[in-house]
Structure formats: C-alpha cells, structure tokens
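Why do we care about 3D structure at all? Because function follows from shape, and shape follows, mostly, from sequence. That is the central idea of this module. The next example makes it concrete: a single protein chain, its amino acid sequence, and then its structure expressed as tokens.
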Amino acid sequence: MNTPQDTGGVSFWQAFRFWLRLGCVSFGGPAGQIAIMHQELVEKRRWISERRFLHALNYCMLLPGPEAQQLATYIGWLMHKRLGGIVAGALFVLPSLAILVAVSWLYLAFGDVPLVAGLFYGIKPAVTAIVAQAAHRIGGRALKNRALWAIAIAAFVAIFVLHLPFPLTVAAAALAGWLGGHYTPQYFQAGGGHAAAQASYGPALIDDHTPTPAHAHFRWAGLLGVVLAGLVLWALPMAALTLYFGWQHTLTQMGWFFTKAALLTFGGAYAVLPYVYQGAVGQYGWLTPTQMVDGLALGETTPGPLIMVVAFVGFVGGYVKGVFGPDSLFLAGTVAACLVTWFTFLPSFVFILAGGPLVESTHGNLKFTAPLTGITAAVVGVIVNLALFFAYHVLYRPAPQGGTIDWIALAIALAAAVALFKFKRGVIEVIVGSALIGCVLSLSGLAG
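And the structure:
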C-alpha cells in the first residue's frame, strides 16, 4: 500500500474535498470535531503524525477562538500554504452558516407550531445538562491544584454574584496566572490537557521529523503582511458600515461587538456565551433570554463550531430589528448573520497565519502559558454560571405571584445528565432523544 510520500503528497483539491466534507459532518462540539480530525488525518489518511497533530492542537488551545476550526486552518496552512489554511478554516464554517440561516428563519417563522415548539421543549433541558457536562469535563482537566480552584471560584463569584463584566474577569484571571507563574510556577505549569503523543499509525506525509516547509518559516515580512491584511479586512467593512449606516446602527454595533467577542473567546464558545448574553440580550436587546437558549440548542444540533451560535444571534437581531425595512426581514437576518460570522472568525485566521511560524519559539514557555492557565481555570467558573443561567430560564416558570418549577423539563434534564455522565452517550444522541420526547409531550398536550 502506498504511503503519502509514495503518491507525491496530497493535492490541493483532495484536501479541498476533505475540508468541505468535514464542515458538513463536524457535529459534537470541539471535542467531537477534534476526534473526527484525528481519526481521519492521523489514523486513516496519514496526512500528519500524532505528535505534529498534538503540537498544532496545543497551540490552538492557547488562542482565543474555536480551537477545532483553528486546528483545521493550521493543518491546511501547513499542507498548502495560506490559501490552504483559508480554505480549510472557511469550509469548516460555511456549511454551518448556511444551515443556521435556514433554521433561524424557520425558528422565527414557525416557532409557535406545536411540532417545532415540542422540539425545542425537549432540546433545551438537554442543553442545560450538556453545559453542566462541559463544566465538569473542563474542570477535571484544568483544576489540578488549589490555586486554580481558587481562580475558578473567584470567577464564578465575579460573574454570578457581583455581575462583573466578562472581559474584566478574564483580565483578572490572566493577571493571576502571570503572577502565579512568576511567584509559584509549580501551580501554573501547563498540564498538557491532551494525551501524550505515543501512538504510532505508520509513516505520515507530515511526520515527526519532516522538516518545516519553507512557507512555514518565520519571516518578519510575512508576519507584518498577515497582520496588515487582517486589519484591512476588518477596517474596510467596519468603515463602510459606519459611513453608510452610522455608528449606532444595529449592523455597525454588531460588527464592533462581535469583534470584541472574538478576542475574548478563551476556553471556547461556552466561555464567551455569558459575554454574548450580556451584550446581545441585556445591552442591545437583539434577542430575548429564551431565544438565546434556543440559539444554543440550535448550535448544538448543527455542524461546525459551537460559537456559530453567534450567527443565530445576528440573524434574529437583524430580523427583529428590521434593519432593511419590514419587507426585507429574511435579507436583514441573512446579512446580519454573515456580518457577525465575518467579524467573529476573521481574528482566528490572523492568529493562525501570523502566529503559526512562531509556535516553536513560544510553546512550553511559562511566561506565555501561565496567564492562559489562569484563564482556563476561570473559564470553569464562567461555565458553571452559564449552566445556572440556562437552568433558570429552562426549568423555572416566573410568575407575578411566585414562579413554579417545570417538573417535566427538570425530568428531561436529569435524564439527559444520566445519559451523558453515567452512560457516556454522545451529545447528538442525547439531543435527538430529548427532541423526540419533547415532540411527543407537545403533541399530547403535556409540555409546559
């Protein structure tokens, strides 16, 4: 059997077809998406070795943004230069964007239909359990000592009790990590988070000892070129929105808000959702708390990064605000969803294409990793806050004379938690099962 070396490598169009297929089947959140890439690229196709794959993944874990999408961008860049990276990262996102635009419109147009309402009635309690599982999973990996536990608890108190802004919480955690790395480095050594690269699946196209490709060597001109291109690609649409619509217009504010969100997504989508909620629901009123929960439910059931829930936020905001008038609601929602996606993911491409050649010089250096270790610990507290947020809005029915618990929704949430924690069922299985239960309950008139 020929190895990749024997066949002369992988052509750009072979890779293009793989990245397109990956974008259409990448369910299961970042853990599931990384597992799919590992199985396909490391074990089956042998495009990259286990050690090189994990090296790239560890770098992506240090960055703000969706690590699975950035990993695809990194490997695409390593194989086929900048165009390969752009194609790999874009195809990881575009199928999800198209699907979310369609289902967001169906949600707004037919959300009150009993069958659709039943789907969401079953899915939302399951999402509450999924978020709780995320906190447990990340906490088990990140909170290795008392110092990191203290940061996690402090972050939870800051968000849940003191209602401090998410960026301030992240900055404080980074400062705690930097100080800890300086004065008590034993508590802030990178834990690795991923299994050691011991498995061997045979020779790979990009193997452990394959020399770094010429295009991946660090050059100041290359770094400055990527950064400048990124700034231009951000500034042109932002300037156009400001000049045409004005700074206070919904679309302009979406571009600015999600630019900030993109730079704060340390720890993935679960970590940044409280910040998105604070802005999109509390500050701008682009959607309601219930719609935010529904959006996360949709994000869990579609391929692509979970942070693609921002496309739902954009679509609902543009649609509800009627930014192009009452006769162009679908167009308004679609433009807003595309705009939000652009500003959310543009920094991820810049981080990979600019920082990729610098990976070797920063990897394992405590002064770089300790602040991010602190942020990762804080993310656990933030996700616990998010789980309580979803639990309140899904399981509790507020009323003027005192609210009541939705016991049926609570039962679905508990069943989903048992399936996830005890029986180790996949996220998609749990969501599909919960959606079917919700449909049956809605059609029988038992749903709340």
